[in-house]
Design a protein that fits this description.
about 500 residues, alpha/beta, TIM Barrel, Recoverin, domain 1, three-stranded antiparallel β-sheet, elongated
């Protein structure tokens, strides 16, 4: 067999991923994610567990109704009622999970090995009689007796199972062991075998790659590696490891990976860690001067792959580690023409902000550059007054009086909270000169106590152009308004 030839992907973001504590996806959420997974090109979408509830069944049926290219699957226990519920959702396949370790068989099910074997065979036969594709899965397989596991797999294939799956349910595999186990299993059974890993020790991707090296033909994955406890194997990590490090095509549309990552993060409410490989906010963000200098000469100096491959963009940020190259690039992009002495002064002021723990925003840099160059620029949008009303059983409402290019403008808006309402009213107020979108909003308390100084960082966009800006006040609403107005004036 050729290594990594025709690797398939079963994405379980909508089932195992949704089992992340605190996550509950609506039917529309599931359809939106499933549609994006289909665009990515995954082979199987595990849309949920039909036995869970009527609401879950409605969501699975909604995904099925989309008529996607991917095979739509439901998780099932080795019980006929589970299969009946899956059939009622009109799925293509079931992920039929049989506990296989003695710990799970004896303690969880309170049965013995032969009882589990009988249940697995009978349920497999029942599902096949009703026209389903069956992937028979061994739960807690990494703690199971390997000879028992292989015999169960062989009996499952004889009963009609189309695929098999080895589940490292609590993440106890190590890569060298995973490869040996899969070489053994794949030589003993006459059906494709999948690998399903959890990331309890941070080895899910490594173990998945090792299992594929050992002969596994399908990887179970989730977007951003979400899932129970420490999560599941990350789709993006496995795909890019195979494509970029092993130089084998996977059939996945990698340019949609970042968009899919952000969609899943937004709908699940699980933020992607800044230092997450490939999809984290910092994965293609550079600050250190020596790195930026190298990047300007050749991006390969400090990037393993081009961000565009994942549908991303490179970012260069400024702070205490900034160097001459990054500041030169940034001020040129702003349209400033500076000499060496002016550049040196701008760099010193940027580093001074960084030394105080500040993130240097676009608006900060513009102010610094204009000060050094003695440029006086009158703000086009000035806040004259604002009022916010918010409380129990009161729709948060804000009104603002702005001076927009010398004209008085009064607007009001509502929102999910006082900050949202304030932004809505400002957005209305400047609509005559700019359609501004709030892309990101972040707040930090700089000091302790109820009168803490808060710093608000915002990212705003207009016609494809983005800027970052800050506001610092003891009043979070005022700090937010200040940050938004700083950003708007920078944009226009």
């Amino acid at each position: 067999m050729i290594l990594f030839e025709n690797v398939r992907f079963l994405d379980t973001t909508l089932r195992d991923g949704e089992q992340t504590p605190g996550v509950a996806l609506t039917s529309k959420d599931k359809v939106d994610i499933a549609t994006k997974l289909d665009e990515l090109g995954v082979d199987v979408i595990e849309a949920g567990s039909a036995i869970t509830s009527e609401g879950e069944r409605e969501s699975i049926r909604a995904v099925v109704a989309e008529g996607l290219n991917a095979e739509i699957c439901s998780y099932c226990r080795i019980m006929k009622p589970d299969v009946d519920y899956a059939l009622a959702c009109d799925v293509d396949s079931i992920h039929l999970v049989a506990p296989v370790s003695d710990l799970h068989i004896n303690v969880k099910l309170k049965k013995d090995r032969e009882a589990v074997r009988k249940m697995a065979i009978e349920t497999t036969e029942y599902a096949k009689e009703h026209g389903l594709i069956v992937e028979l899965s061994g739960e807690d397989a990494s703690r199971a007796d390997l000879e028992f596991l292989k015999s169960l797999y062989i009996d499952g294939v004889d009963a009609g199972a189309d695929r098999l799956c080895f589940c490292d349910t609590v993440g106890l595999l190590v890569p060298e062991k995973a490869e040996l186990i899969f070489k053994d299993i794949c030589s003993a059974v006459k059906a494709p075998v999948s690998i399903h890993c959890h990331d309890d020790f941070g080895l899910a991707t490594s173990n998945t790659i090792a299992a594929l090296r050992g002969g596994a033909q399908q990887a179970h994955v989730t977007i951003n590696g979400i899932g129970e406890r420490a999560g599941n194997t990350s789709l993006e990590e496995v795909v890019m490891t195979i494509e970029w490090l092993y130089k084998h095509k996977t059939g996945i549309n990698t340019k949609e990976i970042f968009k899919t990552s952000r969609l899943v993060s937004r709908l699940t409410g699980i933020p992607v860690a800044p230092n997450k490989s490939l999809t984290g906010g910092n994965a293609f963000t550079h600050e250190a001067g020596i790195h930026v200098h190298g990047l300007l000469a050749d991006t390969e100096t400090y990037e393993p792959i081009k961000p565009e491959i994942l549908g991303r963009e490179r970012k260069i940020v400024l702070g205490k580690h900034a160097g001459k190259s990054s500041v030169t690039l940034a001020v040129k992009e702003m349209g400033f023409d500076v000499d060496d002495s002016q550049l040196h002064e701008i760099l010193n002021r940027v580093k001074e902000l960084g030394d105080h723990g500040k993130k240097v925003t676009d608006a900060d840099l513009q102010t610094i550059a204009e000060t050094v160059l003695s440029i006086e620029r009158e703000a086009k949008v000035i806040l004259e007054e604002y009022t916010v009303v918010s409380g129990n059983k009161v729709t948060p409402t804000a009104s603002v009086k702005l001076k927009v290019e010398g004209q008085d403008v009064v607007e009001a808006g509502i929102g999910d909270g006082p900050v949202d309402a304030a932004f809505a009213s400002i957005k209305k107020g400047v609509s005559g000169i700019a359609d501004v979108q709030l892309e990101e909003y972040h707040v930090d308390a700089i000091s302790g106590g109820t009168d803490a100084l808060v710093e608000v960082l915002v990212k705003l966009s207009k016609d494809g152009k983005m800027v970052t800006a800050r506001g610092s006040r003891t009043d979070i609403v005022m700090a937010s308004v200040e940050a938004v107005l700083n950003g708007i004036n920078r944009l226009i």
